[in-house]
Amino acid sequence: MKSMMTRTVKHNVRYYLLEVTATLFDEWIMIRTWGSCANARPTGIIKKSYPTLQEAKTAMEEILHEKYKRGYVCAQH
Q: Beta-carbon neighbour count of residue 16 at 10 Å?
């Protein structure tokens, strides 16, 4: 499950990518990546594991809500 959002700040397009994926140990990991579209490397990456898919989805929804409040919109695929 993946969700990418963007927003423009002072003519600079920023992105925020959330991805939830299964691990080999029956856990779920959420990877948060963000930065500027002008740079090849991301500004930051955070990985956090969750025991169930439902907990990972709930955490993802909370972060998406926060980012929407900050002005991010879903990116066109």
A: 22
